[in-house]
Amino acid sequence: MFRVIILGSGPAGLTAALYTARANLEPLVLEGHLPGGQLTLTTTIENFPGFPEGVEAWSLMGAMRQQAVRYGALCRPESAVRVDLTKRPFEIETEKDIYRSQALIIATGATARMLGLDAEKALLGKGVSTCATCDGAFFRDRSVVVVGGGDSALEEAMFLTRFASSVTVVHRRDQLRATKLLQDRAFANEKIQFIWNSVIKDILDPAQGKVSGVVLEDVKTHRTRYLPCDGVFIAIGHTPNTELFAGQLELQDGYIVTKGGTGTSVPGVFAAGDVQDRIYRQAVTAAGSGCMAALDCEKWLTEVGYL
Ligand code: NAP
Question: Which of 175, 207, 234 is the last residue of a domain?
Fold first, then answer.
């Protein structure tokens, strides 16, 4: 039995852990499948305040965890597989145990979206990837394609130029969604080319168990063409990790709806980070909302007389 359980260990979860730990609430953090959260799938973070030279994601997340633990947070490498928010205290079941808590902070983040092609599934880990940081080094002196037009796509593309001989960004429109700074950097990078108004219709060749090229379709002319490449990186956004809460919490397009700060449709349940944020989705905003959730949670526990 805990006063507060935190689901997730990205910037939102670990900041909520730090604040609830310093408030003496002795939080349990269930770290989930990806300790440190999505940020650990990237490399250097240049826009987290306080690091003028940038900071490696693993180092930042390691420090956040250490700081939360120092003040009394208990971190366990487990994932919730079932939650019951109709019961008081709430019940959270993991692969190993059943835990109960008076309050819950959900910071389960989001997961990379896929194109939905059979070949993409067949070749995932065999040339198709959603994480340049994890797999970029396998593509030394090879040519790769990155799909998407947002910040992630351009960051992945630029990271891949450290290894690949050429990087082609395929985008379904003729304008990028990414921030101007990243666009300028990507346009200035000689290793990066762009193919506009195009989508990937197929990835070859599952029969060979490796990527040999992609079939592109121009969305305006509907002409298709073959582009040889050795790897495909999918960077088309994310889906919030909220399956556990469907039917129990108010969701909108899969995101947890928060009102008046970080409160959800169930009193005592708070949400922070990408699981409730479709707009900002930055490490620093996630950390900020983790802090808000912790403060809201502490206030609620006091108001209902648990503290
Ligand atoms: P995003 O901004 O949602 O961009 C997704 C991109 O993928 C869009 O260009 C979209 O095209 C394209 N796309 C979506 N579905 C597609 C499909 N089925 N087929 C082909 N293309 C598809 O996602 P993101 O780049 O992951 O960024 C998410 C958030 O994180 C943003 O707020 C971003 O600013 C932030 N972020 C920040 C940093 C940083 O600050 N360093 C780094 C990474 C991400 P359309 O443009 O046509 O919709």
Answer: 234
Domain extent for 121: 114-234
Residue 11: phi, psi to the nearest 5? -60, -35
Cβ-count burial 28-39 (b if 16+ within 10 Å, e if not): bbbbbebbbbbb
Q: 191 and 175 share a domain? A: yes
Together in a domain, 35 and 184: no
- Residue 18 CB coordination number (10 Å): 24
Domain stops at, among 234, 265, 284: 234
Residue 256's alpha-carbon distances to 114, 126, 193, 212, 248, in angstroms, are 21, 34, 37, 40, 10
Ligand 1 centroid – CA 80 distance (Å): 28
Same domain, 229 and 126: yes
Give the residue carrying structure tokens 């990237």. Answer: 42
- Sequence-distant (6+) residues with CB within 8 A of 210 are 123, 126, 127, 230
DSSP helix/strand/coil, 228: strand
3-state secondary structure of 206: helix
Q: Are residues 165 and 218 in the same domain?
A: yes
pTM for the structure as a whole: 0.79
Task: Check if 135 is active-site.
Answer: yes
Q: How many structural domains are present in the chain?
A: 2
For residue range 158-185, list pLDDT tens digits in order.
Answer: 999 999 999 999 999 999 999 999 999 9
Residues touching ligand 1 (Cβ under 6 Å) are: 47, 115, 147-153, 155, 172-173, 177, 199, 236-238, 281-282
Instruction: Please tell me the distance between residue 147's alpha carbon and the centre of ligand 1 in angstroms.
Output: 10
In our burial notation (b when 16+ CB lie closer than 10 A, e otherwise), range 152-186 reads: bbbbbbbbbbebbebbbbbbeeeebebeeebbebb
pLDDT digits (tens, 9 = 90+) for 45-73: 888 999 999 999 899 999 999 999 999 99
